[in-house]
Amino acid sequence: MRGWPLIRAWTILVYTFMFLPVAVVILLAFNANQFGAFPMTGFSLRWFVALWENDAIVRAFQTSLTLGLMTAIISTTLGVLASLALVRYDFPGKNSISTLLIAPILVPEVVLAVALLLFLQMLNIPKSFFLLLMGHVIFTLPFVVLVVQARLVAVKKDYEEAARSLGASPIQAFFQITLPLILPAVMAGGLFAFTISFDDITGTLFWKPGGVETVPTQIFAMLRNSISPEINALGAVMIMLTTGLPLIGIGVARWSASRRNK
Amino acid sequence: MATIEQSEKRAPWVLLSPALVTIALLLVIPLMFIVVYSFWLRTSVGGVEAAFSFGNWQEALTDRFYRDILLSTIRIAAITTIVCAFVGYPVAYFVARARGVNRGFLLLLLMLPFWVSYIIRTMSWINILGVSGALNSLLLAVGVIDEPIQMLYNETTVILGLVHFLLPFMILNTYVSLDGIDRALEDAANSLGANPMQTFWEVTLPLSVPGLAAGGLLCFVLGAGTYITPVILGGPTDAMFANLVFEAIITQLDWPLGAVLSLMLLVVLGAVVLTYNRFMGLGQIAKGIG
Question: What percentage of chain B carries pLDDT values higher than 90?
Fold first, then answer.
């Protein structure tokens, strides 16, 4: 086809557009220049050291990690149970239920944030880490449901039924047969929830109590002054974390799949 | 065996109940609640008072300020969506037609932006277009300009940031559609005498519309609801609707007005989602994300 080289060139251009700015963040994080801008004056790790020595940033990291982990645990538990129901059973109203489960994606995050905030304020529940956690659970849940559902379809029900017919209780069958089989789906869902929570900014800005910062809100606050090499270094650490974890996850999944096939 | 049958019937609801209760408590009830809240009054001491007043609605609906920003939010989201469609379609086509390792690699790269924080992707443009950014340094070095120029903080950079953020959604959704097209249909068109252009316009493009529409919906809804991009890449006059909501709720603590503004945004975007659902069905979105 004649247009093919043109389409290929366009694709390369668009991929460059998508990745170049992010690559520049990582590049500038290693810049020795004290203004953190071009021209690069040499290679240095000083900005990473500065991050480590900045208490506010270390605290923000701790908050983000705790929040991300707790969100992942709660969201994945709720999401896996719901996905099992949707994939394994037929029941009336199934379509409406699955639409309801993905509804938080369809409501703009700002609106979701305002609704939850005002609702809890009315109940006299002040802004707290708990509100932040609930908020993160509600908007990560649909993604967990979608990802887990897509993986669950591939896991057969036969093993579970065999265990049941051999006398296992439903709980035994779930923990000893079903859960090990769907573990990759559970991990994928949890990882997804973690990265979404870890990266979130809009909802977090509404829900966070005064004085509490997550890494994204910390970056946002620091940007108020101007861009600094420290922000680039912080960005670089976040990029490595939130892209590294899923990539390792995919790698482990491939590796264990290839071992099983041998 | 009636008991087993009964427990089989109950089982899905038992499994669903934790998620459904969570969604009801954290999403459905709060949304209904802000409808009530929007009629309440703000008291002079900064609290709120239960009432039934249209004052907040009247203020929000008649004030030109709110209407202008709502319209410009819709316009910015629409431009972003159209740009994403034109820029993303050829890329989705290339990925869908690529073979073997290449295709897996290209798809993996498309997932990467989802894992990089929105705020980092947005602020990364300051490194490129800022006064001491890459582009200014390049132009200075080449001698095209003598003084760095400020390219940031206008509507164009807001749209640029949004396109950068939303393009992967468009490409992935379009890809899913293009990938699902039975190639035999294109072959059939060719063998019946259609030239490649005709085949594309009359077979491939129409069959990829569901993905294009799903990508378009996500771009529009996420773009119109954005709060961060105008703050970081826009100037003082480039506020979008979500900025007004934030301003009302967090800065002015005028919660009833904030409730009204959120509902306005929800109604406008909800209408877009419902129109889409009427013609396409929301299931298509699930395909692109799962």
Answer: 47
For the stretch B131-161, pLDDT in tens is: 888 888 888 888 888 888 888 899 999 999 9
3-state helix, strand, coil in chain A (%, to 5): 80, 0, 20
**Test mutation, B70, B115, B268, chain A, max A CBs within 10 A:** B115
Q: List the single best residue of B5, B7, B8, B26 to mutate versus A (max A Cβ within 10 A).
A: B26
B283 is in which domain, residue-wise? 55-116+167-289
CATH assignment of the domain containing A238 = 1.10.3720.10
Question: What is the ipTM score, two decimals?
Answer: 0.87
User: Do the chains contact at B225 and A109, CB–CB below 8 Å?
Assistant: yes
Quick one: angle between helices A55-88 and B2-23, nearest 10? 150
Domains of chain A: total: 1
Tens of pLDDT along B94-112? 999 988 788 888 988 888 8
Cβ contact B245:B265 at 8 Å: yes
Q: How many CB pairs under 8 A join A and B?
A: 258
Instruction: Kindly state the tokens that stand for B187.
Output: 């072959």
Contact B18 A138 (CB under 8 A): no
**Token duo for residue A197:** 């929570």
- What is the value of pTM for the model shown? 0.88
B59 or A71: whose pLDDT is higher? A71
What the block records as the tokens of A47 is 């900005």
Rg of chain A over Cα atoms, rounded to whole angstroms, equals 22
